[in-house]
Amino acid sequence: MTGPAPAPLRVLVLGSGFRGGSRSVAALRRAGHDVVCGVMPGGPHQRSRHTVAPVRVPPTRTAEWVEAYCRTHDVDVVLPTTEDLTRALALAGDGLTVTVAGPDAAQYAALCDKAGLGATCARADVGHPRTYVDGAVPPGESLPLPAIVKTSGSGEDGDADFPVLLATTARDRDTRLAAMAAAGVGAVVQEVITGPAWVLHGVRDRDGHCPLAAALAVTTWPRDAGVSSVTRVMPGADALARTATPLLDAVDYVGPWCINGFERDGRLVVHDVNLRVAASVQAAIAAGLDVPVLGVAAAVGQTVAEDVPLRPVTYASLDGELRAAFAALRARDWREAARIGARAGAPATLRDPEPWDPWYVIATGRTALRRATRRVARRRH
Q1: Whole-angstrom Cα distance, residue 134 to residue 189?
Q2: 250: domain CATH number?
Q3: How far apart are CA 223 and CA 324, in angstroms?
Q4: What pTM was computed for the model?
């Protein structure tokens, strides 16, 4: 930020038990802000060592609750850190008067909605894979192969039941689409783009200043088509990263953001945009870009610096790498399991969540039990 240090704010962080939420709470408190933690009951991560006694956010009429809570508790700004909560506040429209470090309804539809992102990419001259939402295929076209099949709603629940799939045959693709349709989950079919995968973390203020950190994806989970699991912040990738930021200018977005894309011919082909802090935001924070703090500052009208000095950081999601390790062990691929352990355990690697956090251990155990129960139930049927 530029100018004198701003006065501390009272910030309501929603989804504060998740990786990005917990790290945001810690960052905001380090910056001197008064932070209230909010979680939605029923989620897999309700606590962390940074969020021991959160307030409970109702799963219905969420925006109304947020408005009333902020009014009665003198909250200056709200920072949603999960997709479901970000969408709920975005769609509230004029019914929400509190300042939110996130998108409005039009910005959400243009960038976060899978159906709107393609049109916005075309308008902003940003690359985007051929994408088909909920089976809508124009005349004369057909669904691609190989293809990425994923949920269209950008929410937490559907992604857990139907993780991203790389379909190499029409049978694999159509079987997954049929299962998603039967479950009432929207589907996206997207062409496969080959090339290095990147995760961009950043903030945009009202003057268009847009500091960012670009992280190269080393591995994903699932390995063939999943979300980034191990990333490496590359301070020298600014020019490549800024081939994607015209998307933010196109909708005049203000606040924290994350963009995912593939590198092709010196430009990024963008396949996902999240107008919130990412789950892996700690990679950017450790590299020198304090996305939660700058995102809140931008939301309340403060100016942020365009360029922030960065240092290289290697970041490992324990959630993703633990699943990869278990998969390798089930397949008796001892060499791969050893590689995963060595990479995640390297002294220079930033591990997230913190493995010694007791709340993380409890939440991970519960999630593993719930998934095992689902698998058993599916086999019985």
Answers
A1: 8
A2: 3.30.470.20
A3: 8
A4: 0.88
pLDDT digits (tens, 9 = 90+) for 76-115: 999 999 999 999 999 998 778 999 999 999 999 999 998 8
What is the C-alpha separation between 238 and 249, in angstroms, rounded? Answer: 17
Boundary-marking domain end, from 172, 191, 210: 191
Element (H, E) at 205: none
H or E segment to which residue 146 belongs: none
Cβ-proximal residues to 49 (8 Å cutoff; 6+ apart), any chain: 22, 354, 357, 358, 359
Q: Based on the domain organization, do 74 and 137 belong to the same domain?
A: no
Single-letter code of the amino acid located at 306? E
**Hey, which bits of 88-208 come out as E strands?**
99-100, 131-133, 147-151, 165-167, 187-191, 197-204
Q: In 10 A of CB 34, how many CB atoms?
A: 14
CB 285 within 8 A of CB 291: yes
What is the distance between the alpha carbons of residues 350 and 59, in angstroms, rounded to a whole number? Answer: 33
What six digits make up the tokens of 122?
Answer: 């075309």
Is residue 258 domain-shared with residue 140, that is, in the same domain? no
Alpha-carbon torsion angle 21, 52, 321, 332, nearest 10: -150
* Distance, CA of 356 to CA of 201 (rounded, Å): 26
Both tokens of 188, joined, read: 């996206």
Over residues 322-366, the pLDDT tens digits come to 888 888 999 999 999 998 888 888 888 898 877 666 666 666 666
Sheet holding 147-151, edge to edge: 131-133, 187-191, 147-151, 165-167
In a domain, 379, yes or no: no
